[in-house]
Write a structure and sequence with these properties.
The chain is mostly helical. The chain has one domain: Up-down Bundle (Rhopdopsin 7-helix transmembrane proteins). The chain has 9 helices and 3 strands; from the N terminus they run αβααβαααβααα. A 3-stranded mixed β-sheet has the order 2-1-3. Helix 4 runs parallel beside helix 8 and helix 8 packs across helix 9. The chain is globular and about 65 Å long. The structure holds 2-acetamido-2-deoxy-beta-D-glucopyranose (NAG). The site of 2-acetamido-2-deoxy-beta-D-glucopyranose (NAG) has 9 residues, from helix 2, helix 3 and helix 6. Pfam families: 7tm_4. Belongs to the G-protein coupled receptor 1 family.
Length: about 240
């Protein structure tokens, strides 16, 4: 907290999407429609999964959790972005900026682990069908969800702990429509190379790790389905 008081920057200026009046109206309408779609669609999925007892299975529980995260993730940035669009001078307070970054990365982290869990669920259902129910037990499902949240929080706090110790002494223009670690890390008056590296490595490790695990799960599924359709690759691809 001392660092917070020492720093001279109390708010950040978001350069955002500056453009003509028509473009702004167009962007506002487009983003509002998309945001509404995200919220309504995901809430619909959540309600459906909770209400319909046919959907009380691991796959749909994980899907509903993913929908919940999607609602949260878009709500941390999109409404502020839309309400900022018509303004000439877009600012965000230091604390809101830090909060926004943390929430974004917590939920981003949760989302990535949930995607891995969902891939694992499909891998088990297709490659180990006889043991599916014992492997994807309710206990394992809940463990996946808890692991997702722990990963998200650890990921976000590890980024945050780098950023919060930096001296923000003047430059406060963020070339984006929301706060994010890679942008904010450009601003402090200090030798920031190693911090930039740490932030990039942290997020890079998360996303590349998720990407390769997902890819791997698809390869396993493809090979299994391919073998079962006795070497017919196009049939296997359709199933995949
Ligand atoms: C998230 O997953 C857990 C564990 O499977 C489940 O108990 C919970 O109902 C899910 N949350 C939602 C919103 O569906």
């Amino acid at each position: 907290m001392d660092q917070l008081n020492d720093s001279m920057v109390s708010e950040f200026v978001l350069l955002g999407l500056s453009s003509s009046w028509e473009t702004k109206v167009f962007l506002m309408l487009t983003f509002s429609t998309l945001y509404l779609g995200i919220i309504v669609g995901n809430l619909f999925i959540i309600i459906l999964v909770i209400a319909d007892s046919y959907l009380h299975s691991p796959m749909y529980f994980l899907l509903a959790n993913l929908s919940l995260i999607d609602v949260g993730l878009s709500t941390t940035t999109v409404p502020k972005m839309i309400s900022d669009l018509p303004k000439e001078h877009r600012v965000i307070s230091f604390h809101s900026c830090m909060t926004q970054m943390c929430f974004m990365h917590i939920m981003g982290g949760v989302e990535m682990v949930l995607l891995i869990a969902m891939a694992f669920d499909r891998y088990t259902a297709i490659c180990k069908p006889l043991r599916y129910l014992t492997i994807m037990s309710p206990k394992i499902c809940i463990s996946f969800v808890i692991a997702a949240w722990v990963t998200g929080v650890v990921h976000a706090l590890s980024q945050f702990s780098f950023v919060i110790i930096l001296p923000f002494c003047g430059p406060n223009k963020v070339d984006s429509f929301s706060c994010d670690f890679p942008r904010i890390i450009q601003l402090p008056c200090t030798d920031r190379d190693k911090f930039e590296f740490a932030v990039a490595a942290n997020s890079g490790f998360m996303s590349m790790g998720t990407f390769f695990l997902l890819l791997l799960s698809y390869v396993f599924i493809l090979v299994t389905v391919w073998k079962r359709s006795s070497g017919d690759l196009s049939k296997a691809l359709v199933t995949l």
